[in-house]
Amino acid sequence: xxxxxxxxxxxxxxxxxxxxxxxxxxxxxxxxxxxxxxxxxxxxxxxxxxxxxxxxxxxxxxxxxxxxxxxxxxxxxxxxxxxxxxxxxxxxxxxxxxxxxxxxxxxxxxxxxxxxxxxxxxxxxxxxxxxxxxxxxxxxxxxxxxxxxxxxxxxxxxxxxxxxxxxxxxxxxxxxxxxxxxxxxxxxx
Length: 189
Description:
This protein has strands at residues 2-3, 12-15, 18-28, 36-43, 49-55, 59-62, 65-76, 79-84, 90-93, 109-115, 120-125, 129-137, 150-155, 160-164, 172-176, 182-186. With 189 residues, it is mainly beta. The strands form three sheets. A six-stranded antiparallel beta sheet has the order 1-6-2-3-4-5, with no helix packed on it. It has a five-stranded antiparallel beta sheet with strand order 9-8-7-10-11, with no helix packed on it. Strand 10 (109-115) and strand 11 (120-125) form a beta hairpin.
């Protein structure tokens, strides 16, 4: 058993018959009344995100999870097929268990969270950023860097992201996988 002081981003807990992961949390100590923890939690079985307030000192049923390195192989009708980098075992995950799955390209490494007691895959997490080539965007105009204006672009995985006006087709860009935001241009090596 854990309590509210153990809550962190990524912390997993059992509520009812479901496993939930903390996406955001905030310890609140109001001037009047008891302290509490305001959380935004995500169900690892349905993908649903809810807000939950937990009184300070409340006992929580913590779930032990393991992070395992997997490689994304391909997507088919069954879902996303991944291979364990150590044991070469393969698992298939549904799209709802992978945030921003359209930013994954074949051969990319991801972390899959496993329920330690049941040895079940729960959710896959992409790295914090990915480098992808721009396959289509409107042509840029020299000197269009004074403002923070953006334009839509399609990257090699088929995902749509907003990029600055000076980005052209064929360029390699870095994208934040949590917010889908353009980070920077990457030099081709």
